Amino acid sequence: MKSNPVVFPFKPFSRLDARLQKQSYADIETDLATLSVLLPKKIFHNVLSHGKTIEEKIFSIFVNPQIRFGEKSDITQLKKYWLDRISYFTSKKKRLECTILGFPGKAPVPIKTRREMPDFGELTSLHRLYELTRHIRRTYAPGARITIITEGLLGTGIGLSMREAVAYEKYLQKLIKKLHWNGSLRTVPLGKMQKNPAYKKILRSEIRKFRDVFNKKDKQFLAKYTAAYASIFHLVSTRGNADQTVRDAYKAHPKTAQGKRLRTAIAHKAHKATIGYFATLSVRDKLKFLETTVPHFLALTVSPKPYRLSFQLVPATVTLLAHHGIPFGDIIQYRQELLTSQKPYIRVFLTKDTDREPFLYLPYKT
After folding, report:
1. Per its UniProt entry, which superkingdom is the organism in (predicted)?
2. What is the mean pLDDT of residues 319-330?
3. Of 202 and 48, which is predicted with more confidence?
């Protein structure tokens, strides 16, 4: 999959005209410890570090194609910058401090997923981050810690409530703690920057600025806007609408009046949310939120760009981030794909789960 410097690559819906199938399935319930056995073993085992210095050895890990997401040159062209950043920690024999932004909350689009809390998809991504820290520790004894900056604040623009965003993050924390990964992973909400007295004023200013450059048809901004809008358009909440109406609305030319109205409403909200997305990220940078939260951090990203270390948050064979869909076996797919399939499946529920939707789906093998 080709990487995108603005957002994780967008995957269009397929089979929107296909008939919804009446499917057969079986239900099972199990606990987290049992499900954790399904997590892949030694996923970065073949990633070998190399170099003359410890800084070069650590750097080589991030360049490895099993780790990075995007072009090698995106990282290597700034090798000196990264060696200097790494050296800040190694010279003091301190663990590396890394950040990654993501995990905004489940997409409020029922044909993607009906779940509100994290599931096995998020668990798999957390596991990949944890395994990265373990692999670094094999090369550099102090190891690394990754601070996940959860983007629930951005979710409010597409119709997620802050209540849901907070509950989603707390669920992530629960998963991390139960699997004893809390020595290597932690979460900090992006929404924390709202406590800064200057936040609202700067946000209003940035929204005006991005509206202005959009209206002036600035080519550089429009390219970024277009990349982000495609994803955000398919993230705007469609809860409360029938699946069939939503499927129609996502067609370039809806066939029903309901589908046309919904598509128009989605487009209006998506434009506003896209402007808000860029404005909020700009506020984050102006307030130096990341620098204040995690001084001297190494920035990981799923959207390769200069001064960011791209990382495969999902396996190379997976085309969706966890919050965009449902975990089906070892992939993430839209619920829409399950609805239009005639294949039987197993719904796996987590014991004492706070979300009534399945935690995982598995193929039913007869």
Report:
1. Bacteria
2. 96
3. 202
Q: What is the mean pLDDT of the chain?
A: 95
Which pLDDT score, from 0 to 100, does residue 343 have?
Answer: 83
At position 3, the amino acid (one-letter code) is S
Q: Is residue 9 part of a domain?
A: no
Q: Is the model's pLDDT at 236 over the cut of 60?
A: yes
H or E stretch at 180: none
Residue 12 lies in a domain: no
**Tokens encoding 21:** 């199938």
Phi/psi at 44 (nearest 5 deg)? -115, 25
Residues with Cβ < 8 Å from 228, sequence gap 6 or more?
Answer: 6, 7, 274, 277, 278
Dihedral angle sign, alpha carbons of residues 295, 298, 302, 303: positive
Give the domain extent around 183.
25-363
Please provide the DSSP assignment of 95-115 as one string.
PEEEEEEE-----S-TTT---
Residue 121 within a domain: yes
Token digits of residue 132: 């990265």
Radius of gyration over every alpha carbon of the chain, rounded to an integer in angstroms: 21
- Say what the pTM is: 0.95
